[in-house]
């Protein structure tokens, strides 16, 4: 032991003794710990991750991002006479989840804004005087049945947009609304265009948005091909 590490008083000697005793206890405890690498062989039994995947506890979504309903809970009770009775309690669906109210409201507001924008553009093109934004908005979007009709359509069709029947309905709506809009803007008088174009354009845009991109491309191609065959102009 060097002179620099030699304790000079009782306090230093006690501290040095305590430190030596602690280091010895740590060294003796570490002797029982095996100093080896962990085993890299795969586990012989199923892991918790595999069990969770088998029971579908991690991903609660099915095809087309549809949420899978949780399994029903079966309860077994013992009757007074000793017999067993089972009852299945299926969780009730959440109405806000089955019909997302926020999505319906946002879609309705968006379609109403699109309808007002098309109404303003049509009036600006065909009217003799530029329209006033306030009265036009009140007449076309506030004191009108258009927002209510959009709300009903979105509430019924939007939650079921991934179904095949809904996709077919949107495809038919896209073809009819798009073809009718092209025909009206080319062959009908300007008063008819001012009344029909905003609603037809809004329905056409909404149908294209709700469809899968393959269906949307086919429907737009059909409308464009029909208009080209009839000799209509689009701009």
In brief:
The protein has 235 residues and is mainly α. The chain contains 9 helices and 2 strands, in the order ααββααααααα.
Architecture overview:
By secondary structure, the protein is mainly alpha-helical. 61% of the residues lie in helices and 5% in strands. It has nine helices and two strands; from the N terminus they run ααββααααααα. The radius of gyration is 37 Å and the shape is elongated. The model is unreliable at 93-97 (pLDDT under 50).
Which helices and strands, and how do they pair?
Blueprint: H1 10-30, H2 48-54, E1 73-78, E2 84-89, H3 95-98, H4 101-126, H5 133-142, H6 146-157, H7 164-187, H8 190-210, H9 213-230
Antiparallel strand pairs: 1-2
Helix pairs in contact: 4-5, 4-6, 4-8, 7-8, 7-9
Helix content: 55-70%
- Strand percentage, roughly? 5-15%
Order the strands across the largest sheet as they lie in space: 1-2
**Which spans of ≥5 residues are poorly predicted at pLDDT below 50?**
93-97
What structural keywords apply?
235 residues, mainly alpha, two-stranded antiparallel sheet, 9 helices, 2 strands, 5% strand, elongated
């Amino acid at each position: 032991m060097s002179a620099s590490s030699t304790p000079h008083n009782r306090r230093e000697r006690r501290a040095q003794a305590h430190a030596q005793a602690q280091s010895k206890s740590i060294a003796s405890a570490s002797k029982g710990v095996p100093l080896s690498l962990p085993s890299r062989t795969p586990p012989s039994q199923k892991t918790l991750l595999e069990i969770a995947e088998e029971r579908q506890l991690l991903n609660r979504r099915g095809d087309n991002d549809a949420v899978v309903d949780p399994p029903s809970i079966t309860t077994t009770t013992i009757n007074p006479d000793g017999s067993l009775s089972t009852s299945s309690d299926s969780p009730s669906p959440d109405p806000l989840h089955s019909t997302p109210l926020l999505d319906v409201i946002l879609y309705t507001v968006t379609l109403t804004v699109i309808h007002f924008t098309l109404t303003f553009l049509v009036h600006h093109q065909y009217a003799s005087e530029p329209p006033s934004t306030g009265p036009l908005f009140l007449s076309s979007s506030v004191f009108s049945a258009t927002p209510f009709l959009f709300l009903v359509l979105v509430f019924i069709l939007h939650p079921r947009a991934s179904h095949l029947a809904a996709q077919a309905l949107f495809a038919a709506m896209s073809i009819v609304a798009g073809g009718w809009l092209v025909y009206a803007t080319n062959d009908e008088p300007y008063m008819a265009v001012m009344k029909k174009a905003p609603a037809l354009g809004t329905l056409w845009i909404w149908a294209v948005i709700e469809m899968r991109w393959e269906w949307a491309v086919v429907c737009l191609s059909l409308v464009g091909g029909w208009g080209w065959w009839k000799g209509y102009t689009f701009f």
